[in-house]
Specification:
Blueprint: H1 3-20, H2 25-44, H3 50-66, H4 72-86, H5 97-116, H6 118-126, H7 130-153
Helix pairs in contact: 1-3, 2-3, 2-4, 3-4, 3-5, 4-5, 4-6, 5-6
Length: 179
Amino acid sequence: MVASETQGEAHAALLAFLAAIKEQPDLLHFYLTELLPDVAASFKTGGAASCDRLGAIKLLLLACTLSSAEAAPALFSLTLPLLIHGMSVAADGPPSKVGAELSAVAHAALTALASRSADAFRASVANFSTETRSRMEVAIREEQAKKQRAVAASPGAAVTAAKPKIALKMDFGSFSAKA
């Protein structure tokens, strides 16, 4: 069995375990408190292979989803910078296939987390370093520009003016005063 398959099975088992203990918040909190710093450290230092980073992001997102509202700011302060550094930007050069997938997941996750808890998201972003904030802004702008280019390039993008449903006539004779 290949190492990545074993790691994938381990991630799947871990995700299933975390979902199963959702109804036991004390155990979930303890487990996540012990696990997440190691996940984050391996992700940030590049200790994990690219395929493992996607699993790490999924684990962090699961933790954010299962956590209470009180724990959200702490989890966001850990998760958001990792997501942002997983987003590809043009300055990094073209991403690999796995890097592109990681970037797409990171963009979607960033948006989902911002909608889930806007206050925790804002508080976390307010504490970002200038470098992390700039990377986030550039990555979001580039992703929006890419989507706009894709829409413009699609065959249905050319909008043709529809024929008006009413006809305006320049004959105002019916409005004149009749003597």
